[in-house]
Fold each of these.
Amino acid sequence: MERADQVLVEGRARVMDLRAAMAAPGELSTAFTRLRCPVGGPRAGARAARFEVGRASLHRGRRASGHRCTVRLAVLPSCPESTMSAAPPDTIVLIHGLWMTPRSWEHWVERFKARGYNVLAPAYPGLEVEVEALREDPAPIEKLTIEETAHHLETLIRGLPRPPILIGHSFGGAMVQILLDRGLGAAGVAIDSVQVKGVLRLPFTTLKATFPILANPANRHRAVPFTHEQFHYAFTNTLTEAQSRAVYERYHVPAPGRFLFDGALANFNPHAATKVDFDKEDRAPLLFIAGSEDNIMPASLNKSNARHYNSGIVSYKEFPGRSHYICGQEGWEEVADHALSWALNPTA
């Protein structure tokens, strides 16, 4: 005769010792010792999977010869194969957004390196030069596309010996979502993220911040800067004008207009580069971080983006009083530490 026992398994793909889970007095103990996610991966919402153990079952103290045992597993959201490695991530990849370069991560790089991590802050193609040089001649990024940049980052990450933690800000947050969708990364953190295809929410402050660029169709084929006034509204609205200007002079560069136009029109393009599968079952854990005072990518937009995901471990964290300059304004250390801590131990 058959007997079924319920075992709840954490969706994060860990080795599960069923003997330890079922070795209570009077319970069945199985010769089944290792379990990983079933082929195809479980969905969120505890989809059940059946495993036939057959004659390998033992009652405590005596053989249950001739009996079949069915172990019924309720499986929670899973991680991809890349997270099954026993070794934790040793590399962090920091992905910048528009109007910024890898220089914007300078403090994060130092902080994570001091903790023993290999830290990479790759530039988008054409942005490898210094800020000052790019301001003088933005021609190398005028025709840069989202797909070209995603492919560039994918190639770099696939060349690493171990799946890294991916952390991206603004359009870098969208890149993190795209890269996780391609099966990369041990975990991802999207900070003040640009929304991906399928997110319909469009706050007024987002429209106001991007209107100076999108109002002119010719900007699609240009590298377009913000004025300091525009930058202060979009990025540094919680800073004084003097503080904002110092940030602007240190970090700001023109942005490839095509990113903005293609991102804005993604919901009308069936082949949009920002398209991801919200139902993908083997995606690495994903955390959205938002600043309550962000104008260009408000917290409501990040929360809406997070809610579109129907599978896997997806979490949302909002920091009060933070603008789009959340990675550099006072208190950035708290944001950096939370991002790393969550990525090492992700929870929904």
Note: The radius of gyration is 23 Å.
Amino acid sequence: MIKGLFVVSLTQIGKLSVLLALLKPKWETRRVLVGGLSVNGRAIISNMFTAFFAQGVSLLLSILQSLIIPKMLGVTQFGYWQLYLFYVSYVGFFHLGLSSGIYLKMGGVPRDEMDKGSVKSQFVFGVTYQTIMALVIIAASYLFGSVPSVNS
């Protein structure tokens, strides 16, 4: 049994911290013209704080992943941990650009103006496709692979 095995990769959790930007409150402030552009100073500072905070969380989790986890695990267990991280890094290829396409299509649209039905159908399609791909990979691993025994 691998001690300290996390179901979700630590780097993925660090990337999820970027979602904090969606949770922050909207501040009403005076806009200032800078170079002919209207700039909201508080929003810029808030966005910078959120970006630095997300990068800090990602840095701390990377330190944990590269310095502390190898000390907790044995050589064999660490090898399996690295193999797990290797496989997790390829998960993004299986959505075939669906999330990037949604981001490009809906990126600048305010939330209240979005076509919620379209977003929901794209989400359902993505989840269904990912589930089918996961089941195919699991079935292929049981049919064509063998599980080595690990002596702890």
Note: The two ends are 7 Å apart (CA to CA).
Amino acid sequence: MAGTLISPKVSGLSISLQESRILLKVLFYTSLTAYIVWFGDILRNPSLLLEVIYGNKGATYKVRETYETMPGITTLTQLSILYSCLYALLPDKDRSQRVMLYILVALTTFRAFFWSERLALIEVVIPIVIVGCLAVRRGKARCIVSLMPLIGIAGILILFALFEYHRTWVNHYINIYDNYFEFVTSRVFSYYYLALNSGAGLINELGAGQNTPFYTLQSLYRLPMLGELIYNYMEPGNPTRDFLYRFADPEFNNMSGVFTVIYDYGASAFVVFFLIGFLARITYRSFISAELSWLSLMYPIFFISLIELLRVNYIFSVRVFPVFAFAFAYCISKFIFSRASR
């Protein structure tokens, strides 16, 4: 919270309209290629998709086993987040850019349903929703925007209900819960309070700030080729596995985004939270100004990380790393070329 109280005036690393159009194409074709590499072969096995649609037992797990992720390649699908952010902020959108967005949303919806990854769809939709809310400043629509926190909770429940029916309800939980509504509400809310409970238990049983950071360096540990070397050198162990198998249920493996940072850094965790709040404030100011800049594009990432803080450590997750890496590489390249051209 202290970090958000500071509101420095930062213009950000601006992006011209010409750059934005090129960037949109680069982001789209990179994401599209990654999706084709990941799910291209699924067309050869449509029967497996039909099993998922019909809710056959274990079908979604078969999909995960058949179409495994490829570190460094399939991770590039996350660049669709940047596409959505840039598209949302772009003042003048043409037909081709809208078509590319529809394609990415369709692919992400396919991923959310068949790969059971609802967060991927939320990541792509959130930037467009936020920009839409900012654009509404008067009338009845503004009243609706003021209710967005409640609408968002209802939206999460609906999204979970739509995608979870075929994955776990018909396969298992139909025999445990009295009705589907009870299953959806209890399951969704349990994600959050169980994550907090597990995180608190992690600190209580394994201590805090006493080991090599594990949770905040996940992206480094999972880098292609280098990740294993870094992990073996740092030797952080696996506190999630150690705790869950000894004290909890391995099925519920979220440890919250609060306690994981405390586990890694102990009392120094407040510095990390301060920096997150500070950066969130900077990106927010840039975003609401509707300027095309890399700071603006980063705000939806911080927004999602804050609303998911109780459940997962999103800002340090592997999901976000490609976005930050792409932005950093682009800005560094632009800086070097601009200096060379002087």
Note: The chain has one domain: 2-340.
Amino acid sequence: MPKPLKAVLLSYLLLGAINARAELPPDYRIMLLTANFPPFTMAKGGKNFARGDEVQGIATDTVREVFKRAGIDYSLTLRTPWNRVYEQTLALPGHGLLSVARSEKNRAQFKWVGPLAHYESVLLAAPGSALKFENLAQAKGYQVGAYKNGGVSQYLESQKLAVIDTLQDEENLRKLLSGRIELWATSDPVWRTYAKEEDVSGLQTVLSFRSEKIYLALNKKTPDEVVDRLQKAMDEVIAEGYSGCSKTPDLCYLIRDRGTP
């Protein structure tokens, strides 16, 4: 190919790359939502509503760094219940949700950036219980409480295990202690925070059954340019070993070995 033609083609390619980057309007902003999911996302003092810097957690810190590197503006609001912000993110363009487990049910419903961290899915019984399971099939026939549209609940439903969903995961702790459910399907270490807040000890782990990664879930209409820039920044964060847990080093194990999407 003649050199002048090569130069022209290269110029077009560079111009195309610049224009692709410039597709976003200067005032573009993503409205990020989340709910209390400690220690990943949480409000100061366990409140049910928070904005901006009042929203804390190791996933929150990572997302802040990712948006900073990607050069994309955002707002951040925490409110309950989880099901409300989940459905809102599904319905409204320009919205994103922290911290979501990617499942067969929701995989095609969002665009994804991550992984941010991981947790363990567990079945818990009340103090003094002697229950021990080797697999999920043994939980059939028990009253199992879970968190509506949470990753644990969605996975159990995919395994044809009936669950009793609540809008607040901490409510399952109270239901377990009062005998209204026999098992609590939840996330470790999330349940430990709720147990500590309620001054409850002695909960029994009946089964640990799945390690789950969590992500930033973006509304399906989010421009690919946004998703690509955020994922590139996320990949840099993972490669550099950025923790997001510098304030809580005891929780760093939750973001170790995050790997790639």
Note: Residues 7-20 have pLDDT under 50 and may be disordered.
